[in-house]
């Protein structure tokens, strides 16, 4: 065998060896394999943001059960007068309770007359007049409201009524004609429980709620 042929056989053997080595390292592709991905592991799913519309009105459900008649009445009030807020009403009722209660205790009802119905004003004024006839005076100091609960609400023919339960705390001393203490202690606070119903025509120009009924 001459030298050129021998050289070709050697080169051919080397080529075959290199091809086999490359196939063992890189593997083969048959045309049906998926294209390689530059990412490792499963692809993350896009985060889905869920927007809830038309949910419960927290201005109502923070104060009364969601599915009750009271909640339905309050919702009707808000539809009739969009500016109405239950939280705002209760804040105003808190201030009205102190103002009216202390006016009654001190016997000065004229200053709160616009916030009372005619019947409630007449009832309070009668008690104040009776105390004056007996020569009684009252020394009172309001301490604060310990508890306040929206108890009931109704809405009919544009007239809204909301009933609130109050537990107030005050110092009240009743003195007789000669200044002697008839009732109470100067340094001892007492609890005052009241159930008041306020009324207003929704949509009216007058923004004031009026006290139309009282109880315990």
Any overview of this molecule?
With 216 residues, the protein is of the alpha+beta class. The protein has a domain at 69-215: Nuclear Transport Factor 2, Chain: A, CATH 3.10.450.240. It is 36% helix and 27% strand. It has 5 helices and 5 strands. It has helices at 3-26, 58-61, 69-80, 86-106, 118-134; strands at 137-156, 159-175, 181-183, 190-201, 210-215. Strands 1, 2, 3, 4 and 5 form a 5-stranded antiparallel beta sheet that branches. A hairpin with a 5-residue loop joins strand 2 and strand 3 (181-183). It starts with a helix and ends with a strand. Residues 15-53 have low confidence and may be disordered.
List the helices and strands and how they pair.
Elements: H1 3-26, H2 58-61, H3 69-80, H4 86-106, H5 118-134, E1 137-156, E2 159-175, E3 181-183, E4 190-201, E5 210-215
Antiparallel strand pairs: 1-2, 2-3, 2-4, 4-5
Structural key phrases:
elongated, 5-stranded antiparallel β-sheet, single chain, Nuclear Transport Factor 2, Chain: A, 27% strand, alpha+beta, 5 strands, 216 residues
Can you summarize this structure?
With 216 residues, the protein is of the alpha+beta class. The protein has helices at residues 3-26, 58-61, 69-80, 86-106, 118-134; strands spanning 137-156, 159-175, 181-183, 190-201, 210-215. It has a domain at 69-215: Nuclear Transport Factor 2, Chain: A (Roll).
């Amino acid at each position: 065998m001459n030298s050129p042929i021998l050289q070709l056989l050697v080169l051919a053997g080397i080529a075959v060896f290199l091809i086999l080595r490359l196939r063992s390292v890189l593997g083969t592709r048959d045309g049906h394999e998926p294209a390689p991905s530059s990412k490792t592991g499963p692809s993350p799913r896009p985060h889905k943001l869920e927007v809830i519309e038309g949910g419960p009105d927290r201005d109502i459900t923070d104060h009364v059960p969601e599915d009750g008649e009271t909640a339905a009445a309050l919702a009707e009030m808000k539809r009739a007068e969009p500016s109405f807020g239950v939280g705002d009403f209760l804040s105003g009722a808190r201030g009205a309770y102190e103002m009216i209660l202390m006016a009654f205790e001190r016997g000065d009802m004229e200053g709160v007359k616009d916030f009372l119905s005619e019947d409630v004003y007449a009832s309070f004024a009668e008690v104040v007049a009776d105390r004056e006839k007996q020569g009684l005076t009252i020394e009172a100091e309001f301490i604060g409201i310990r508890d306040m609960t929206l108890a009931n609400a109704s809405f009919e023919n544009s007239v809204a009524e909301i009933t609130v339960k109050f537990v107030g705390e005050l110092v009240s001393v009743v003195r007789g004609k000669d200044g002697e203490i008839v009732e109470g202690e100067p340094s001892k606070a007492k609890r005052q429980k009241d159930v008041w119903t306020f009324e207003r025509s929704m949509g009216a120009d007058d923004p004031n709620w009026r006290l139309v009924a009282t109880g315990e």
